[in-house]
Queue: 4 jobs
Job 1
Amino acid sequence: MMSEPLNSETEFFDREAIEELQLRRLQRTVSYAYDRVPLYQRKFDEAGVRPEDLRSLADLAKFPFTTKEDLRAEYPFGMFAVPQAEVSRIHASSGTTGQPTVVGYTRNDLRNWADLVARSMRASGARPGHKVHIAYGYGLFTGGLGAHYGAESLGCTVIPMSGGQTEKQVQLIQDFEPEVIMCTPTYLLTIMDAFTQRGVDPRSTSLKYAICGAEPWTEEMRHELETGLDLKACDIYGLSEVMGPGVAGEFVETQDGSHLWEDHFRPEILDPFNLETALPDGETGELVFTTLTKEALPVIRYRTKDLTRLLPGTARPGMRRMERIGGRTDDMIILRGVNLFPSQIEEIALRIPALSPHFQLEISRPDRMDELTVRIEPREGTSSAERDAAAIRLRQEIKVQIGSSALVALAEPGSLARSNGKLRRVYDVRNKA
Ligand code: DLL
């Protein structure tokens, strides 16, 4: 057996060495998956490919995709590649519809996961000895425990707060004085507002770094959080089916999008129209992953439904970066033929000074035509003239930048639902006459 390089070494590999490592790990993964998971055997056979056909990285394109529906169909443990007794932990992603998707980890998987979260956290500014306040939900969601073991592995002092109980979050941040907070960007907004409501200046806390992910967010939201809390906010990306948080992480020095940890995952970008062809770097499409080291749940060409593009690495030149995710194909609103993502509204609204980041999108069908209403809270302390002007400007900017007309309805400050984790932005009331 060839001895495996350590994660701390492969992080610094150059592109050539990474690709060489990827090919070796990919070859091992496809034959491992084929031998151990009936679904892969069936799919490969149907597609007429065999593990030996993978001779170069380009050959991966011959292999069939895996989807969330595949995982659902094999619920709960049908896709596990090891006997249940070798599975050390199980997580599940809630999913808004139907069955949850179940994922599993061996001891090695958990060690790699912790290493990659630690690597992501270090990139984003966390250091051994920092106190890390974790406000991602603990439990079946991968956010809480994923961040937890990563922070421990980095050598931090972990405060396992979990999500919710915002009053208590704010109290403990004041009392324990953590340097780092990990939570969704919209929940950080909730925490920020809770400080203000207590009469505490959110810029005065001990927090220096926020490591945010699990939902799309924009540069404008980063600016909102960084100025509001006086800290540096970086992105962390991941999904349960592939691992959890820590598939990619952003460097605080460059803040130029998350680096994909390509020593463990091989990314591809799929043409969003024909959903067949892989696109070259720099072009936007659906992100697809093949895991390179996972034991309990290897995934081959898993379709994430996340839209992004691949860019060359900067802080780690051997790894590629992904552009900030603008949205998921699932969240795309098609309004009278125009495609639109909630993050585009966030971007436009936050450039208008009198508007707050608190908004919801409602799609209705009052008269055989779909209609989008943006319900948004103006900022506290703005005059009614400023608010009205801001609403008109938002409507105009949406028309100009997205190319679609929307109604803008101002909501009372504090009236819209606040985030407790992943925030729901879109409310579709079309079928509820
Ligand atoms: O959300 C894992 C995670 C936890 C990532 C904590 C980061 C921090 P799932 O619940 O399976 O796993 O949801 C995965 O969330 O496919 C994306 O659509 C979205 N997502 C995750 N991170 C980001 C991000 C976790 N940084 C789904 N930016 C993914 C945009 C993200 N979207």
Job 2
Amino acid sequence: MTIEEMKTELAKRLKPSRYEHSLGVARAAVKLAERFGVDTKKAELAGLLHDCAREFPQDKLIDEAYHRGIIVSPIEQVIPFMLHAPVGASRAGELYGVTDRDVIEAIARHTVGGKGMSDLDKIIYYADMIEENRDYPGVEELRKLAETVSLDEMLLAGFDQTLAFVLSKHGLMHPDTVVARNEVIMRLM
Ligand code: FE
Ligand code: FE
């Protein structure tokens, strides 16, 4: 499938705002990839498809995960939304013919991060937070960082923003996010 064919397919499956968000993430990811010397084609592809399983309702996501042999952790039982990342990674292969492991991994990790994130993983995580359609308190600051500081420094700011939000809601924290954030902090020490 070409990128244009993927866009046509994606536009049919996602609601318009989600489709626009996906295009925005692809654009933001390409910009970051250029800045950090990462393959821009992979960044575009991962950005475009990162939310390709986002149309599944919550209960369906659990079924889809089991059906694909994806391990559903206790936290994902409670917040099935998080599964759109690994389920999307699997669908990127089946439905859109993606075979690139780096792209598949970046899609799988875009929501909560993970241990040993690659530069592409980091770029997709961050592009998802700052793409042009995003609007939340603090987004402008994160957009500025995307042009100034290192990828790890950006990612730390992104994790902090996410965790601050979760804390303010007294919400559950995914352990993979904590692991990924600790790794970044130790690298920056
Ligand atoms: Fe997502
Ligand atoms: Fe997204």
Job 3
Amino acid sequence: MSFPEGFLWGGATAANQYEGGYLSGGKGLATADVITAGSKDEARKISIELEDGTRKSINRFEDVPKGAKAYVDPDIYYPSHVATDFYNHYKQDIKLMAEMGFKCFRMSINWSRIYPNGDDKLPNEEGLKFYDNVFDELLKYGIEPVVTINHFDLPLNLAIKYEGWLNRETIDFFERFCDTIFTRYKDKVKYWMTFNEINFLRDYTTLGITEASNLQRQQQAIYHVLLASAKAVILGHKINPDFKIGLMVANILFYPETCNPNDSIKTMEVDRMFKDFYLDVQARGYYPSYKLKELERLNINLVKEEGDEELLRKGVVDYIAFSYYNSAVISTKESKEKSAGNQLGGVKNPYLEESEWGWPIDPQGIRLVLNRLYDKYQKPLMIVENGLGAIDTIDENGEINDDYRIDYLKKHIIEIKKAIEYDGVDLMGYTPWGCIDLVSAGTGEMKKRYGFVYVDMDDKGNGTLKRLKKKSFYWYKRVIESNGECLD
Ligand code: BG6
């Protein structure tokens, strides 16, 4: 058998894209609750109110001016508000996961469900109870919860009142949140990861900061996030020494376009900027020399406190979790034909096919990234996101024959097997993204689906939320049953 015994087969989701119930049970507003739906060609937006009271709508990655704040416009549809309503469907959904044979389920905890304003003194009991119910339901079926502490959201109040992660106090609020959930769930949850795709936190909605493109501000906020992650690791191990706490990065594989050394140097720089830096700090415990030089060159002075270095050193993670959807080609030549990708694209790769959203499909890339990570850090790995976003149609028999999804996943699993069997990589688990359909993070669409289970909901928020098993549901069940041996 290639996959080790006890391998964690499962699926992955995030609260802001799946849970809904955006104000239910005492939950407060999160930054994710103010992002509109977009499309493949139209960016998601946020509504902001400027200091002088003027209101306008801006691209979510545009800078929010200082003093401005995001708000919910009652006339606009926001996909996170209902999402695919795990909040009211968790029993039914977990039953479906159990039927597929899930060994684990990756989900995130909505910070503003536990601390509605982020800075509250006491947690919201109803919110805590919701996750108790979810974990109990999972454990009833022998499904191990794998919990992302923070997945692309922040209590909106922390952004408005404190400038989110720019403010060092946010670390304390986050620590309080971690303390609460670690203590409450210490006998129910063993696997945690701190920040989802920590290397993609860069705007108002993820960092909670205005003028996010100002590098001094952005780098200071990221420094605080990294400290918060280290603190969470230290705290978690204190509360339960059996906890396994990981980091989570978006692991895009970057290829140099040609053997021109210039392309390789540029690829190295892109690798460091978008990925390695975050891995190095969290897995090794210090800012790497290339990053210190970069900050120096950019004239960025991070405000630090005594003891910070020790925190980073002590707060190294137990394992490395990552998402992998596509590779990207890096070139020093401008004006080439481009490909899209998970937040970042590259130059078109003539050797690869692309998804309907233009993301290159590169199964061998997953073997490469597994090897790179394992060679470099020698820590157990977990693939916590992988999959194909595609349009599914229900045929005249009421079935969804998503062979394209099966094909994508199958090809990736074959390469994962090689990484384990031939290369000896230590892999703990595999949780394909959006196992039950949910809202796309990039575009806010519903029609970009990843799941084994279809949810009746459209891009405008209309639908019955009814669940329907796709062909891939039965396929994945066989994969898990055979521990990855049967892929047909
Ligand atoms: C990752 C995120 O970026 O990729 C998920 O962790 C996201 O939140 C996933 O949904 C797929 O991206 P998208 O844009 O297709 O939803």
Job 4
Amino acid sequence: MLSSSMNILVIGGAGYIGSHVVKTLLQNDHSVTVYDNLSTGCRENLFAAASFIEADILDEARLRAALAPAGRPIDAVIHLAALKAAGDSMLEPERYAEHNICGTIKILNAMTAAEVRLLVFSSSAAVYGEPQYLPIDEQHPTEPTNFYGATKLEIERILAWYSRLRDLRYAALRYFNAAGYDPDGDVRGLERNPANLLPVIMEVALGRRTQLRVFGDDYDTPDGTGVRDYIHVSDLAVAHLAALEHILAHDRDLVLNLGTEHGASVREIYELARSVTGREIPVETAPRRAGDPAKLMASSKAARETLGWRPRHSDLETLVQTAWNVYAGR
Ligand code: UD1
């Protein structure tokens, strides 16, 4: 363990990525309080060793109370609570603006009021938009093609101002495609109505959906299907702690991509899923989804060099197998 034990508020800690972050923090002897409204997170993802506050980020009074508890003060916040369906964000911009932008501003203001000055923020590869070159590094232009990505970029800009004006120290982590489940099987909550590739494939494997709709098979990629950089959620989780330790030790802000630098196609993934699950997984070709680039891959050089971070579980086999273990109830 690099730093002494911290008391950390994990906002969105009952969600898919948040629960993996909580597990990593607890394993490293930090004290954790989860703050979550359970709108997409689930009770099943809560760890007994963490305290839990069921509340919404739009509720300023509850936020202020959570950030200034009667007992041990909060040392840092990890904020992962957001709406994340890129397609929905184009249909319901008001909801995305309110939750992702207003909600985060309320967190920041409650943090400054309570003099909590360390933050790790969940950002996204969606801040970049259509890639102008690959792999995408942190200097790549940021021109989001969906409103979800725009909400994340807006918050990154505000964070830079709070850093200057309020001495907030932050890490904005730009995730590529989070996938897989805790290899130890300690996180078992399934996402409800998933739209992302791997959970959809898992639901097809279980017969909960009739087929996988492959959004486009005529892209300029080796097999014609979309290529993405899939990163194991446990690798993401470790990066949150490493980022927190880094900004604490070096008193500087970080904006980092988290990906593997390797691309995998939709077809590679469903073919591998057929062999891992032993299930048929029917597919049909569907039209391209609006706003989907052909290929997205991260340069994660900065995260490697700054944090000494390396993905350990992000090979495709582990991604698919750990997801299947949970979906198949193993
Ligand atoms: C998007 C966002 C990402 C966000 C993530 C979370 C962009 C560019 N990326 O990732 O920032 O964090 O959602 O929701 O906005 N696919 C199918 N059939 C399906 C589902 C997906 O063929 O039923 C294909 C997609 O076309 C794509 C790949 O699978 O090629 C991955 O899609 P998905 O899991 O939805 O993630 P992204 O759209 O890459």
